[in-house]
Every structure is written in structure tokens, then in C-alpha cells.
Amino acid sequence: MFGGSRRGSAAPFGRRGAAWLRFLVIMISAKPSIRATEELNDVFVIGAGASVPYGFPTGVRLLSQLRQEQLSYNDRPLLEILDSLDAQQRTAQFDRCTSEYFETRCWDHSPDPSFCLRWTKMIRGSVILSIDQFLKNVEDKNLREFGKRWMARKILNAEANACDEPKQADNQSTSSSMHSIDWIQQFLTRVDLLGNWDEYLRRAAFLTFNYDRVLEFFLERYLVVDKNLSRDEARSFVEDMQIHHMNGYLGPLSEISFGNLTDPNSELDPLFDPPSRHAPSVKWSAVANRMRTVWEDPDHHPDAKETQAKAKEATSKAKRIFVIGTSFIPENLEAIGLLPVEGTTKPWGQANLLATAKGLSKAQMIRAADQLKVRGKNFLDMNALDFVVDHVVL
Predict the structure, then answer these.
(1) Beta bridge partners of residue 45, listed in sequence order
(2) What is the DSSP secondary-structure string of 62-101?
(3) Which of 66, 90, 101, 163 shows its CA 20 to 30 Å from the CA of 182?
(4) Are 386 and 19 in contact, with CB atoms under 8 Å apart?
């Protein structure tokens, strides 16, 4: 499944190189240990900033991309996304087209041009900087639904684009991509030193606010390549882990491959092999139903309440909580049990909480510390890679 390199592999440069060397110094005398699984109950809270090193946009950047998008009715994914929306007054004829390489649908359509025009005017005219908040203010349910589907497509495209080997200009480091050596590889390298690494991964909880599947991708890759599990065994292992997408996600890799570059059951490696000639069709309505913005009522989304309950249970039992790449939105903190109820102490007991604060102003750090009832020293002005290297000790 994961074979040799077609495009080569990215070498560490700059800060990544320094962090990598520091990590090797720490690891050079390390021996397999079971201390982490016996003594520690770790929770990792993962925000959008944790995916940025792998080539993904921040929320602000994602909204900017959506504003710049030129919608065209010649775009097959757009037609698929518009399909079944009440506002879309058209008929679609589905003809099954088959060949040795692909299976797709041929469209006979008569779209309503005003629908996409209204969307374009709204998103370009808005002054809001958050896609979640922008969608909260959209009253038309069909436009709001379209926005979630279109956002899902952009994130799926980001997964695909992140698999490309980044170009390197003279005297410049490579851009971020899934080929980058960053915090997840560092984390899994440390986990691999544990005598019972599998127990640790099953006991640790990962509470992510991201729609992407970066964490699942690298976990599956680690289990297949480094631990010699079959792909089915690896996917079953990952599905059994405590990975909770607090606002939903694109869906399991067994249903939609990473970046939708291949059929989910294909043996092609998305990092090193050419993508399928034609990407499989995506059921965008199902994807949008799995995704929830911060402002949507969890009662109206399947499994949302259950996911929040599991997250709160994990943080209440945690011995250590690592917060990576989040912006400390109060609604998010409340959803995972990190926002104390007024008049009470912090709800996660005696757990030690450490968080990355790269890119946050001093005022934002003070405000977040006050919300979480912790000291400012718990917030570290470092990126995810350096944070894992220096502070996630197993």
C-alpha cells in the first residue's frame, strides 16, 4: 500500500531540522518504557493550527479561498454539490459510464444561475473572518447547506494538494505538506519506543476540532508500514481509538480516501503514486450531515451529544492535557469539558494542562488562561513540532 518514493521525500529544513536534531539527542539513549501506559492518561486537544504544518489552511485562509472561488456550472463537483438542494430547480439524468479505469456520472442539467450568484455576493460582501460565524448568519438554509458542502470540498482538495511533493526554490525551504516532518511523526516516533505502544494509543484520547483526517492518515501509515499490520487491521485499530471529531469530519478513510485521490480500497499510496484518473463521486449531502459548525445546535446532529460526553469523560480522567493549535473558542472549550462552570474550579481535576500559543497575542493568552483557570506559564509560545519535542514526554 505504501511503497517507495515516486517524487522523492522531503528533508527537514530550518526549524524542523533543529527540532529533529534536538529530538534525536533526546531519543539517542532512550529505551522502551511502559511508564506512559501505566501512569499517564493523556488527552490531546487538536485545533486547526495542528494541520497547518501539513499544508492545510487556517480558518481565516479557508474563508479567503472560498471568497476567491470562481463557481462554474461546467464543474462536475459543483453540480454534485448542488444536487438535491431544494433551491436547485433542475433535473439530472444519470447515465452510468464505465471503462477500465473509472466509473462516473454524466449530467444533463439546467441549473438556476441565481443561486450561485447569491452565494458569491454574500460571501464576498461579508466582513466576517470566520467561516463558521459567516454560515451562522446565513438565513437561507439551502445557501447554508451549500456552504457546508463547498467547505467540505475545499478541505478534501486541501488533503489532495497536501499530498503533492512541494517545490523548493533557491535559498528557500520547502512549503508545508504531508511530506513534511512535523509533530505527528515526532509523536509516533516516541510512542513506538513504548513497550506497549498499542495500549498507549488506545488509552490516549484525541479531541480534534478539524474536519480533515491528517491524524488518521499518519496513524494508519504508522500501523501499516512500521508495525506491519494489514490495511484492514490498521483501519480497525484506528477506528477503535478514542479519536473524537468534536464538530464532525469528512468521514472515515474507508469511505472516502485521503484527498479522494483513489478508490478507498485501492492499494495506491497517495503520497507517492499518481492519483486515480478520475476521482470517485462523493455523497456531499452525507458529508455535510457529518459536519457541524461551532454555532450549530449539537441536538440537531447525529452523535454530537455522545461525542461531547465522551470528550468530557476523557478530560475529567486525564492526568495530562496537551492543547495543540487551537484558538480557545469558549464554545469549543465547553464542549470538551475544559470550561469551568461559574463558581466551580477547573473541571478536569488535577490534570496538568499545557498548550501551544504560537500566533496568539499576550491578551489572548491571558484571556484563555482566565477561561481555563490556569496560569499564563501553561501557554507556550512555540509551534506544534517544538511543543511535542520538548513537552510530550512518554
Answers:
(1) 207, 323
(2) HHHHHHH----TT-HHHHHHHTT-TT-------EEEE-SS
(3) 66
(4) yes
- Structure confidence by residue, pLDDT tens digits, 183-203: 999 999 999 999 999 999 999
DSSP string, 178-213: TTS--HHHHHHHHHHTBTTHHHHHHHSEEEE--SS-
Question: H or E element: which one contains 14?
Answer: helix 14-27
Written as nine digits, the cell of 64 is 479567503
| CA-closest candidate to residue 391, choices 348, 355, 351, 346 | 355
**pTM of the full predicted structure?**
0.83
| Range from 166-175, 201-210, 225-234 carrying the lowest mean pLDDT | 166-175
Q: Per DSSP, which regions of the chain are E strands?
A: 42-46, 95-98, 103-106, 205-208, 242-245, 320-324, 352-356, 379-380
Q: pLDDT tens, 337-349?
A: 998 766 666 666 6
The residues spanned by each domain of the chain are 14-56+176-391, 59-162
β-strand pairing of 103-106 with 95-98: antiparallel
Whole-angstrom CA distances from 61 to 27, 36, 56 are: 36, 37, 9
